[in-house]
Amino acid sequence: MAKKKIKLNVVLLKNNLNIAAPETFIENYLQDNEINFNKGNINAILYKKLGSYSEPKWVANLKNKIVGDFTCDFPSNQSSGVTLFIEVQDRIFAINFGTLGRFNINKNVIEKTFGIYTANKLLNNDLTATIKSAHSRVNETNPVNKQRQYGADISNNQLFLSMEDNEALKELAVISYSSEDFSRMIGKYSSLNVQFLFNNVEIPCFQYLQPKLSRLLDLYKSVSPDDVKKLFKGIYPLNSLEAEPLNTQLPNKLIMSTDTFFLFEPEIDYDLSLVAEIKIEGELYDELSLSAYLDKNPQPSFENLTEDKIFFLNEDGDIIKEWSILECLYGEIEENNTNYILSGGEWFEVSKDKYDRVSLAIDEITNTSFGIPDHIKHNIKGDIEQAIIQNQNSNQKINKENIFNIHLSNYIHGYLFDEAAKQINLYEDRFEVCDVLHQNTFFHVKYNYGASALSHLFNQGYVSAKSYAEFTSKYAEAVNLHIPDATNHLSDQPDNAKVHYLILNDKSKDRLTFFSKMALEEKIRTLQAMRFNVNLTWIRDMY
């Protein structure tokens, strides 16, 4: 008889938590929010979270920003959620239901590697298991490219990974055909979506759930370094026990080696143009600033780093994004000849050869001889200030990069391509050639907003150069239509062509996260293999 499939979102909590002390793992615990149910002999808590009744947010936006005030009654909304906490062996599992269920869990006690490592282990252990899909930490320039469909599952013996695939694996979907307990699981950081299998007589399944969770826990505990290395190519997330010594040292290292760390945006799933201000420790700033935080809290504890917040606010003062200081903290340290990266609140171990290879590649292309004279910078600043004055009564965003590019092209006697009208079409693909073109050097310029902007920059240079290498004559013909002086036309033999990345940086340091370095290093190797020269220059004191 076919088994009943039940999908559950499962989270594993860290070691040394006691289910008799729910205030240690439930956010803002209140005993009145516990729901009584038949637990049998199982140690468990069913805990609810109710949101407040409120008019839908879109109503206020409609009144304030679109049509003006009006009188009409709309039903109030109330979000809700429930979490089932259940003791299994020496650990606690949390299973979430509803919109607000996940907010019941104190996120600082979540075992972040549980989901991704358990799915990985199932794939390694079960010869019948197949991989349905995987998401890695890669920022695509074109949003269309972010949606992929997979025609067939891939079995273990057919799974071959290129050197750079899944450098920072974020999600793994695995199907098992032999397990009696689960048929499918999607492993993510923090959670594991599991399709459990039960006999019909085992529904409701609560009394039969604990043994299956126990087998999941055994699977996670059995993960070995070799299991991790199969799908994590040279960069491995540490579990909570492995990360504990580094977290203990972190506050002291932060104080003693401030230059080793900085704040950055750990996520890119928001519209940066909507961000008007950044609030850190009650003060408003234009950019993320670790020094600003340390000025307010010169000797933070690890608890301070996990509890103190950073808010990205829009022009109305509403919160767009909220993170802890720890989640925004980035740093690279070396301990016992091993390189570690702190990113998004998690520690990663990086293999020595990978760390050295990537770092050397960036160092080799860094060009400090190219610069913009002070008088040109002065003129750029003046034009930006004038644009701000002219647009102070409108919401139009000032295109600082375009102002810079105009001055750059005039200064080096190049050609400005930072215009929509000068994008070219090749075989129905439309893309930007560069921002400024000068004597076979393609300048690509981006203000250092963060990881997503830099990924766009690196990919922009790569896409254009690749098209030049693959469709040389057609590419040169399309570009030359925008170059009036025939003596400066591109050749249909792209010898000595150069891709020169310019990062406009008004932050305190010129630096990239290791993930941005990896993205750039991959492009460097490919561009150099196509016989392009590659340079990287930081331009400071622009804004």
Structure characterization notes:
With 543 residues, the chain is an alpha+beta fold. The protein has helices spanning 57-67, 114-125, 206-221, 225-231, 240-256, 290-296, 302-307, 325-328, 352-365, 374-390, 400-412, 451-470, 472-480, 514-529; strands spanning 4-12, 44-50, 80-88, 91-98, 130-136, 154-155, 169-175, 182-188, 191-198, 235-237, 261-263, 277-280, 283-285, 309-313, 319-324, 329-335, 338-343, 346-350, 415-416, 424-426, 429-431, 436-438, 441-447, 498-505, 533-540. The strands form five sheets. Strands 2-3-4-1-9-8-7-5-6 form a nine-stranded antiparallel sheet. A five-stranded antiparallel sheet has the order 10-18-17-16-11. Strand 8 and strand 9 (191-198) form a beta hairpin. Helix 2 crosses helix 3 and helix 12 (451-470) crosses helix 13. The longest helix is centred in the C-terminal third of the chain and has 20 residues, at 451-470. The relative contact order is 0.09.
Primary descriptors:
543 residues; five-stranded antiparallel beta sheet; 26% strand; alpha+beta
Topology:
Blueprint: E1 4-12, E2 44-50, H1 57-67, E3 80-88, E4 91-98, H2 114-125, E5 130-136, E6 154-155, E7 169-175, E8 182-188, E9 191-198, H3 206-221, H4 225-231, E10 235-237, H5 240-256, E11 261-263, E12 277-280, E13 283-285, H6 290-296, H7 302-307, E14 309-313, E15 319-324, H8 325-328, E16 329-335, E17 338-343, E18 346-350, H9 352-365, H10 374-390, H11 400-412, E19 415-416, E20 424-426, E21 429-431, E22 436-438, E23 441-447, H12 451-470, H13 472-480, E24 498-505, H14 514-529, E25 533-540
Parallel strand pairs: 23-24, 24-25
Antiparallel strand pairs: 1-4, 1-9, 2-3, 3-4, 5-6, 5-7, 7-8, 8-9, 10-18, 11-16, 12-13, 12-14, 14-15, 16-17, 17-18, 19-22, 20-21, 22-23
Helix pairs in contact: 2-3, 9-14, 10-11, 12-13, 12-14
